[in-house]
């Protein structure tokens, strides 16, 4: 069953403030609720500690302070129910595989179309694995 986009609460985690702001605006226009933002995994951990409710999904940059597969794996050890969709400019098969192995529910590229991102958010929030259609088939 598809999760209605309007019922999803998201946290954005990216070290580029301008990109976070722009992405938040786009996702709000698409009907999503942006309930928090962080510039790195330390900030995300602090946000999670301050809020009783776990967001439906975290959109997380791959290359930022405390990020990457090791940062994601550590975060998910402390917050096992957290669903994470990795966003990156990198289409390196090793990075994609490492993020998925670390527990990401999906991997999208930052230049994927907005509708693909919204669909991936809905899918990952529902427990599906979503990978960018722009990646070679072996990575999908």
From TrEMBL:
Classification via Pfam families: Response_reg (PF00072)
One example of a Gene Ontology biological process annotation: phosphorelay signal transduction system
Residues with 4-aspartylphosphate modification: 61
Residue intervals of the Response regulatory domain: 9-125
InterPro entries for this protein: CheY-like_superfamily, NreC/VraR/RcsB-like_REC, Sig_transdc_resp-reg_receiver, WalR-like
SMART domains: REC
UniProt keyword annotations, A-Z: DNA-binding, Phosphoprotein
Keyword Phosphoprotein assigned: yes
GO molecular function, one term: DNA binding
SUPFAM superfamilies on file: CheY-like (SSF52172)
Top-level lineage group: Bacteria
UniProt name for this protein: Response regulator receiver domain-containing protein
Origin species: Pseudorhodoferax soli
């Amino acid at each position: 069953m598809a999760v209605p986009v309007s019922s999803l609460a998201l946290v954005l985690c990216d070290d580029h403030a301008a990109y976070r702001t722009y992405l938040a605006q786009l996702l709000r226009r698409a009907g999503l609720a942006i309930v928090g933002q962080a510039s790195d995994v330390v900030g995300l951990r602090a946000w999670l500690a301050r809020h009783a409710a776990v967001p439906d999904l975290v959109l997380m940059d791959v290359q930022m302070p405390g990020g990457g597969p090791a940062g994601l794996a550590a975060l998910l050890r402390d917050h096992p129910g957290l669903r994470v969709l990795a966003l990156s400019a990198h289409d390196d098969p090793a990075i994609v595989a490492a993020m998925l192995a670390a527990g990401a529910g999906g991997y999208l590229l930052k230049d994927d179309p907005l509708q693909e991102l919204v669909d991936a958010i809905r899918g990952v929030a529902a427990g599906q694995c979503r990978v960018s259609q722009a990646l070679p088939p072996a990575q999908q």
